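Dear all,

This email documents one entry for the complex benchmark we are building for the journal club exercise. For each entry we list the sequence lines for every component of the assembly. Then comes the predicted three-dimensional structure of the complex as a token string, followed by one or two observations. Please use this as the template for your own entries, and keep the labels exactly as they appear.
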Amino acid sequence: MEGIWMTVAFYLLAATILGSALLVVMLRNIVHSVLWLAVCFVAMAGLFLTLDADFLAAVQVLVYAGAVCIMVVFGIMLIQRGDMGSTNLFNSQTKAAAGVVALVLVVCGYLSATTQWVGTAVAVPEQTVENIADILLSKYVIPFEVAALLLLVALVGAIFLAKEVKADGHND
Amino acid sequence: MVTTISLTHYMVLSALLFGIGLFGVLAKRNAIAVLICIELMLNAVNINLVAISKYITPTLFTGQLFAIFVITVAAAEVGVGLAIIIAIYRNRVSVNLDDFDWLKW
Amino acid sequence: MVEFAMYHAWLVPLLPALAFLAIVFLTRPWPMLSALVAVAGIVGAFVVSAFAAYGVFTNPEFTEKPLVYAVRWFSMPGMQIDVGVQLDPVSAMMIFMVSMVASLIFIYAIGYMKGDPGFSVFFSYVSLFAASMLLLAISSNLLEMFVAWELVGLCSYLLIGFYSHKISAREAAKKAFITCRIADFGLLLGLLSLQIIFGTLNLVELSEKIAHFEQYTTFGVLTLIAVLVFIGPIGKSGQFPLHVWLPDAMEGPTPVSALIHAATMVVAGVYLVARTMFLFHEVPGAMELVAITGGFTALFAATIAVTQREIKRILAYSTVSQIGYMMLALGVGSMTASLFHMWTHAFFKALMFLGAGSVLHALHHKADVWEMGGLIKKMPITGWTFVIGGLAIAGIPPFAGFWSKDEILAVTLDSGHYVLFVMAAFTAFLTAFYMWRLIFLTFFGEENPENHPHESPPVMTLPLIGLAILSAVGGLVGTPWAPLWSEWIFYGHPHHAEPNYWVMIGSIVLAAAGIYLAYQLYCADKTKARAKALAERYNHIYTILYNKYYIDEIYLWFNHTIIDGAARLFYLFDIYVVDGIIVNGLGALTCLFGEGLRVSNTGRLQNYALVFFLGVLAVVVLLAFTGPSSASLTVGGVK
């Protein structure tokens, strides 16, 4: 994937990501938003491939497009009742939010444009999984273990928070 | 130089995606929609991490590694966030953030 | 015994103070016991001070160098205050005189206050007063003296307001206290300045330091201090313009008037100036001020006394006038003459006040002299002792007042103050006139049929006789031919004016003329028609004099318009500026900000997130554009 194909792939994927993200925000039905979110995540996996991060692309598809989206859909299923056509509306500070976002974009754009990146011509090694595994289990083993603990805590916490209300009225 | 995709291209893409996510966070009513938009913002960050990893430190893989950590944390965050939303919904029968003004005093 | 008394002179103020404590805490329920305790205290003080005075006057070395013993009261960096006793001829004379007069007055008061519900309280107050006054007299330190000075002021306040059921007594007490406080403030400033400049308030050390103090300008710091110190005596001794409290102070019981407001406390001012003579002596300007104040007050008060009707009020103005004499003598540089007059004045003025008290006692507190008359037949002891007092104050030889007044006139003339001399001489004439007007109207002439007078009991008349004897012979210690007094009591060198026979004859003539005029107007003329005609003819002058030159009214006007006006201005300032703008304004501003900020406190998560992101943005911009690496944000790669 070199040269012009690379460029074409980037623009296609970028358009897909931005378009689907916009739809996520703009649609009035929350279920549709989640579906377009899945599209966005898959396109993101493709973008990771253009960046020579094939392991990450796989993780992206597995975790985001798979697990997260399904979980959100389940969440919606547990909560939403009634008219699904207007479940995802804007609030009263939309204009102010747009202003803030515009400011953020201006600042980020300016900084991106003016920053001089000292690049390198070295290519990314082919064995991404081996390399990542190497540093993950050596240099970054403690963050790795902490992340494991975090997931455990999140799991227990989510169960605790989402537990059914007891019959005696205590909703802990 | 349109044909060569540089780091700046990824940066701009990331910034735009971040902006869309931020707009959603600030302007949507539905708590689940806010959660989704936070995921968009985290993905924008991942783009930056991986892109910088490729263009500046290709042999170190720290960028990709951090992206993996971000994904891990995001998954945990979605789980806990959804649990919180469900708990709130049980109490208030609503996920409309306009109904909630508890952050006073 | 003499030795013991001299080295234990602190017993002199201590004994009455103990009497005060004993009455307050132990004997108050038993009036007669209280009176006996008080009399025992003051008589004990008198005995000790008599021996001490004898010791001082028979040992000439104490004239040169005072006997001082003191203990350290408190000490801090740059300031040591001693409290102690200073015995020299001046203080020995003072404690002797005060304790002697006070003893007689205490005895008199047993009769005068008989049956009063506050009998014990009265004796506790006067004991405290005597203790304070004696402490003032023997203090070796100006701060100690100031404490005693304020204590006598307090006692004066308590005793003037003794009949506190009377509004006028309460008002008079307040007036006396406030007037004296105003003056004491000046004195306090003066004492503080002395402490700051000379680092000590001990009288002996101060006199040495001031004698060697170089003053480079004519109007220097010493002048200022002397004037400040003199403000205290102006108030305490009732000198113009702070004399207004003294006549009103006659609201108190008559023994108090005699003890405090005639014989002892009011001369504390004279005594203070005499004690700090080393300061005044260095400043001719301040001496002039003292002399002019004294001379003017003497004449001023004498003219008022001429027209007054109440017996004690006449005596009060007479006191003011006589203290003016003492100040005049101090001002022209003769401490000898001044303290001599203080000595004689204590006897005859106490005598006359006690006599007036005896009269009031007999007439059930009818005070107007025009309603009296012929009392000498019914009250012979009171009447004749009063006449002796009248002769003494008028200056008829050989009674006490003649010698001291003559000496004052002589030294004033010697020092070249001719205007003051004329004023003093005219005052002598007026003194004889108004005092004999009082005597003729009260004791001679026709009896008023409404009065049923009776002579007072012996406990009251015996002190009168004692004081009358003292008034008669007390001046013989200082006659021009046997000048014992001036060998003991002087400042600098003993000096004695040669007998000035012209002045002597002149003052006798003036006194006799005054008495004769009073006789013609108020005794020989049974109907008093000429006196009334004179008052009619010079109606304006009479009215002004009778109303005491409207000084009280001027003060009232000043208070009501100027001070109250200023107070009202400040009140408005307080209401509208302090309370309005500053206090309430700040409150309103806070409320306003609160109202504004309340809008921002929505409690909504997304509002807060919005602002939070603005903040993040601001931080990013700040870091990116003002940080040290803002010129070129370069992110380096790996080698």
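Observations: The first helix of chain B runs from residue 7 to 27. The CA atoms of residues 23 and 37 of chain B lie 8 Å apart.
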